[in-house]
Write a structure and sequence with these properties.
Distance between the termini: 28 Å
Order of helices and strands: HHHHHHHHHHHHHHHHHHHHHH
Radius of gyration: 23 Å
Shape: globular
Number of helices: 22
Structural class: mainly alpha
Largest sheet: none
Strand content: under 5%
CATH class of the largest domain: Mainly Alpha
Oligomer: single chain
CATH architecture of the largest domain: Up-down Bundle
CATH superfamily of the largest domain: MFS general substrate transporter like domains
CATH topology of the largest domain: Growth Hormone, Chain: A
Amino acid sequence: MMLLLGTLSLSLATFMNVLDSSIANVSIPAIAGDLGVSPNQGTWVITSFGVANAIAVPLTGWLTMRFGAVRLITASILLFVLTSWLCGFAPSLEMLVVFRVMQGLVAGPMIPLSQTLLLSSYPSAKAGTALALWGVTTLVAPVVGPLLGGWITDNVSWPWIFYINVPVGLLSAGMTWAIYRKRETPIRKLPIDTVGLTLLVLWVGALQLMLDKGKELDWFASDQIVILGLVALVSFIVFVVWELTDKHPVVDVRLFKGRNFAFGALALSVAYGLFFGNVVLMPLWLQQWMGYTATSAGMALAPVGLFAILLTPLVGKKVGQWDPRRMATAAFVVFALVLWLRSQFTTQTDFQHILWPTLLQGAAMAFFFIPLTTLTLSGQPMDRIPAAAGLSNFVRIMAGAMGTSIITTIWDSRAALHHAHLSESLTPTNPVFVSTLDGLMASGLTADQALLQVNRLIDQQAYTRAADDVFLASSIMFLLLIGLIWLTRRPASHKPSTVVHMAD
């Protein structure tokens, strides 16, 4: 019974963390409108959490040795509850981003430590069952997140997408401490790479800020963007050199010398950036230009986890027997198909046709994370697995945040281009344009109101075509990424084993 309760408490922590990565996606237009900013600026709510979370992940090992795994995960959950509460009270976008950064930082240790404690509780023969139970939470959360986020946004208010973490987190922290406090891990004082950590925060922060503010400041026409770009570049180079020479690096970049790790982590990260960026783009397009409410947008996105939940146990069982390169290739082909189907969307596309690609995407997710993680970590000695897993997750989470910024920026730029092309023929000599204006004014609108209505229709077409461009380019990118998969070596076939699966 205690084993089951322990699994539940750790799964709740993971569920809360993963849920927070997806629940805000459908709420961005509401948050942006309430705080008086554009939806593009509203995406900072997502990217700030992702970047802070990525920075915190490599510190998990050092923090665990310094404070103990049970104390650390309990403190992380309680601090996550506090920062979630602060996010709900944020009076401005700037304060919300600050609190989301804090939330991302304290969330870093939660997922890896929940796995560690869970595996230490079960006999080795049942480790696969333990991870399967834990893994379901990472797959259910993407289903529940959009639905719950949409319903709360439409029927209560967006701050409650953060407030709901409070009771869940308190329950999880209380159960975790009560069950695991007598199993605390040994504590040792280890040196921390403060120079490396400072450089990591500097280049990651500067790069993400440059991506987030680039469009707003007209990119490299702005001195601020040029300075941010130079800071990111110089600090990154110094960071790599320092980490290669330090005895206790915060990030062991030497891992990239391994063929499987280098190409596996690159394929996983770029693919995740494409995947997550498109996951953020879909609800923005549906709500801003297709007239969907947050709830209906959530319903259109929720089925993504259904096939993933059904197929993941099969993938986990067969990944040690089948060639994981073939499994990952199948995932990329399905992702490409899904995005190609989405590139055919028009302003007349109905809910059913939007739903089908989302359903298919769940099958791709099942064959995506586990095989690529297996390829990335294969060949690593056991004592380097934690560092390798931490670094691959750092790069992946970073790519997700950057993918969101890049894709939303490209969407806006392509929309401006399509708007200009669509507007070229709308002149006073165009009979269709004139008759449309006359019809709108005949319905009671003033001339200015009629022009605004026509401009709104042009914007709808422009942003839909721009979304199609992004979907098509992403589809092609997934096909090109297949080449990276086949640059890795196939791991030796073996009996089904436990594979760390992270789909947050």
